[in-house]
Amino acid sequence: MDVFSFGMLNWTVVQNGKIVLAALASTVPRSGVDAFLKEQKESPDFIALVKRAVQLPGYCGDIMLNDFAAVLENTLGAPQSRDLERALGCVRKYVSTSRLKSI
């Protein structure tokens, strides 16, 4: 599985389906979109852009931000530090905590 894609999926879900990378790519000429996306995927600085977007007021209303930030860090951070197992552990923690709240 592509760890970066899993992170993008999580980010998109929390954004209520808004495809965030597409919005970023809209600032690039159409002929350069593929290169732009590849560059973002390989960039160790991409997570900084993601974190700025996540810190917007009212964002992630019911998501535990620490767990979500850990998922993003482990999937969208520097390529050498991506760890799917740790990201899934954060998702599992969120899901189990959410279930406890609803009981």
Q: What attributes does this structure have?
A:
103 residues; mainly alpha; 0% strand; globular
Question: Can you describe this structure?
Answer:
- The chain is mainly α and 103 residues long.
- The chain has one domain (3-102).
- The protein has 6 helices and no strands.
- The chain is globular.
- It starts with a helix and ends with a helix.
* Main pleated-sheet profile: none
Helix percentage range: 55-70%
| Beta-strand content estimate | under 5%
Number of helices: 6
Question: Which class best fits the helix and strand makeup?
Answer: mainly alpha
Strand segment count: 0
Based on CA inertia axes, which overall geometry fits?
globular
Mean pLDDT: 76
Low-confidence stretches: none
Roughly how many Å is the radius of gyration? 14 Å
Distance between the termini: 33 Å
Order of helices and strands: HHHHHH
Number of domains: 1
